[in-house]
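Q: Phage head-tail adapter protein, please. Structure only.
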Amino acid sequence: MAGINRTKISEKLYKQLDKKGLLKEIKILRIGKNAYKEKLNDLYVCTVKGFYYRKETRINISATESATLNSNYSERVLIIYDEESKKIKQDDYFTLAETKYKIIDTGNAENIIYDMQLDRS
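A: Structure for Phage head-tail adapter protein:
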């Protein structure tokens, strides 16, 4: 995979989603601490454009037990990998349509895109 131009692939994905009007502006925030170790909410991390979607079905396979089918959905957001999105970490959060989402996993796919798994707060 050394010969793949990851930036070019990421930009192509972004352009296609943008053409269809599927991208939403997302302001990523973080909970941090100040110099006195006091908790600070809503520290600004970055603003990115992303595609929110739901993944409907998930199959969980355990080595010690059998496979289980989870028919619930998992919420995700797809963001291109660039200088702004590199700042995003696990446990950051954002608000979309008056609903707060926490980032459980960034889902970095070969430094092309972030397919982030979300938890509704």
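A: Brief note, in case it's useful. Residues 6-120 form a domain with the Thrombin, subunit H fold (CATH 2.40.10).
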